Amino acid sequence: MKKLSNILKGTALLLLMTALLFPSEKIDLNSEDLTLLESLPVSEQAIEALLDFRYHHSYFNSIYQVQQIKGITYDEFLIIKEKAAVYPLVRDASEQQMEDNYFRIEQMTFSDGSSEGLVDRWIALLSNPVNVNEMDYYSLMNLPGVSPVDAQAVVRHLSEGNEIKSARDLRSLEGISYYGYRNISNYVQYEPMAHSRWSGSFNSTIKNVALNIVPDDDPEALTEFAVNQVPLDVFHKGQLRYGNQAEIGIAYTRALSQPDFYYYLSADSSLKIPAFKAYAALKDIRLPLGKIKSLIIGNYIASFGQGVVMESVDYFTPRKSGYGWRKRLSGVEGDISRNESYSLRGLALEYQVGNLFLTPFFSYTPRDAIVNADSTFSTLIRMSPRLDYGLYGTFPTKLTNSVNEMLTGANIRWQITPGTHLGLNFYESLYDRELDMQLETIVMESNLSRFITSIGNSADPEIAAMYESYGTSGLWTEARSFRRVMGMDASTVINNIVLQGEIGVLDKDGKIGDFSSDAFAWTVNSYWQFANFNILLLYRDYDLGFDNPYQRSFSNYQRYKSTIFEDVFYLNNPSMGFLYSGASQPQAERGFYYSIRYQLSRALLTTIEHDIWSRVADEAKYNRLVASLEYRPVFNYRIRLRQKWQSRFAQNELAPTGYNSSETRLEATMRMSRFNSFSTMLIYSFTEFDPRPRLMEDPVTRGQAYVGNAGSPSRAIAGTLTHNFNERLKLMGSMMIYEGFIWNFEDTDFRVYNSVTQAFHGYLALFSRINDNFSIRFKYSFDSHLPVSNIPKALVRYDGDTDLGPNDRVPATEYHYTKPIWSVTESSDFRLQLDYRF
């Protein structure tokens, strides 16, 4: 018995020591396994309250947060405090980087419009940062907000055999600006990645609103484009990445009211799949001789220099300088953006040998084009929606996928010193139809006489200068015409000064080396960067005949502005209006632009943009000056005044082509706790036109005319509120009363409003990050304005006799209302976006 007693005592002592040394582990309230919370000995209501907090609010920072949750009593809090604990979140470096930058991911992911390949790359780097010590000049230049001076400061430091080991090292580099440091540090790390991991994302957008490129000069066509909201606009894209070494992407897009397009897998068309974009890419493959920076098969974007020769994106961006937030890609990148018309599909390679960068690329893809009756084609066209036979289905030849293009090109860059390079750019497009511009295919026969002769279409010489070609090629037996563009670009950084430029040549006679009849385009710029001051100087000069569909260099206006293509009612089909409204090329311009940013003090910031240019087609003189002043009395309060003056000078005192426009915007923003904010905005603008004699008096009564437009005023008052319920749930809303033509940034997209009567516009947007990986955003916009009524002057006799003699001049005594041209007084749209990433 005594021996048994000693055994029991020893066992009890061992159990006691085990309990003291290894106490039972408490439940982690921040556990990824939420089913553990259900095991707590509290009421079902308390469990639901805990789950609701974790699902819809955030992780716990303290156990005492439980006491503040509604639905949990004090006694239950004591039980939870005893049985559970809050442990620190443990994330690896890439997960923590993504968490710290999630607000940037949210803004980029849910922004509308074109990503142009850069945004997808930026988001990938936020979750998989690259070692800054392995980056070259061009990789740094592809980061947002990074100037050539900043990129050169990093590359020069590394080229001297130094290493950047921390953010402090990066900030202390000689020549780097504060903004350059901040923008680079968000996307890099300072040591090699311990191990590569799989990551990915899927994003889906569904909406019933179109892009702002719908032709707007024909009210009937505009109504048809606007009210036809089926099928819905959809855009789905997904990516899968293995570290920064390999990635694949796939995307499907369909514009509003556009039919589906398919790839047919069988001869009888019975087997088909939706037409999609996809690519696979390998990056940073080191070889015994050099390195493959990027190898892409599938859809991709190619962009080099200043965008004069090659930048294969769909979207026209005014004043795209390549600096600040008007970035352009340098190199090649897989493309799963909304680009449809000019996305390249084939094979691209970016290869580096020492200081030499070689980028050959090949593409074969069908293009939308206007086909003539004789099977030639007049020009390429970008439409949204893409309709086989135009609006109403009445165009005689098919517009979509009607011309096949085989494109070969290359970029060669020699990096002489860090930040200094000389580049050669070249591409040749072969088409399987002859390129023959036939105006009668586009313009109604009865309106051909207005071409070039109408003063309202003074830029028609731009149409007359459109490129035409016929010829064959040994590279492709199907080739019937070609387009060949070549050029040079150069860039250098001297201390804090940047000098850049590019020249392009369109070969118009097929004689390589003979430039006598070729068309040229060139641009140069200089950028000076200081701590609180920077200035950009830019000049461009584009020949009228430089008809390059891949040109995206700096300009104010897109091609074919003020031509007959802008007047939809003169054209054979309203979809022909996309030749102007959907144009991606810059207009032929010649002019000087400068921008200045100067932070006078911590509280005052001023910016100036000034552009003086001539339109080459008609020598019309333009002037645009924008000045803004931001005053920040304390950090959370900002008052911003923006003033714009723009004008076009009349060619003589009788020409009705001039105008003067002035726009004033006053905005006040109050930033509150938890990233809440409230802002108000006042807008007033007025556009005054030169006198038009035919509209100055009534031709019958010789009295004042009741039609015409001497000036167009616009005004608006708006208020916008952002409220964060918690870290994962946010509500945004805005209300605006306006009249006239107004543009504004609405949530994450750019919107244009136009109403000849007073109107009310508003939107509500809800964002919810349901968990670490999944988020949703829903936006509803609505617009309501007073009905439009046209009041023409009526002629009646006092005795009721309506037979007027040729010399009768009877004043009007009666007015009547006609049926409004635009009868829609209310409209609304929605946008639903889902995002999943891991």
Query: From the alpha-carbon coordinates, what is the Rg to the nearest angstrom?
Result: 32 Å
Shape label: globular
* Structural class category: mainly beta
Number of E-state strands: 33
Total count of helical runs of at least 4 residues: 13
Largest sheet: 24 strands, antiparallel, barrel
Characterize the structure shown.
- The protein is mainly β and 838 residues long.
- Mean pLDDT is 85; it is low at 14-24 and 791-823.
- The chain starts with a helix and ends with a strand.
- Among the domains are: 19-85, DNA polymerase, domain 1; 93-194, no CATH class; 199-581, no CATH class.
- The chain is globular, with a radius of gyration of 32 Å.
- Helix content is 14%, strand content 39%.
- Helix 5 (102-109) packs antiparallel against helix 6.
- The protein has 13 helices and 33 strands.
- The chain has a 24-stranded antiparallel β-barrel. A two-stranded parallel ribbon has the order 1-2. Strands 3-4 form a two-stranded parallel sheet.
Record the SSE blueprint:
Elements: H1 2-21, E1 27-28, H2 44-56, H3 74-83, E2 84-85, H4 93-100, H5 102-109, H6 118-127, E3 130-131, H7 137-141, H8 148-159, H9 167-171, H10 178-185, E4 188-189, E5 198-207, H11 219-227, E6 233-242, E7 246-254, E8 262-264, E9 272-274, E10 277-286, E11 291-303, E12 331-334, E13 344-353, E14 356-367, E15 369-371, E16 377-380, E17 403-417, E18 420-431, H12 461-464, E19 481-494, E20 497-507, E21 519-529, E22 533-542, H13 578-581, E23 589-599, E24 604-615, E25 620-631, E26 637-649, E27 659-671, E28 677-689, E29 711-724, E30 729-746, E31 749-769, E32 774-785, E33 826-837
Parallel strand pairs: 1-2, 3-4
Antiparallel strand pairs: 5-6, 5-33, 6-7, 7-10, 8-9, 10-11, 11-12, 11-13, 13-14, 14-17, 15-16, 17-18, 18-19, 19-20, 20-21, 21-22, 22-23, 23-24, 24-25, 25-26, 26-27, 27-28, 28-29, 29-30, 30-31, 31-32, 32-33
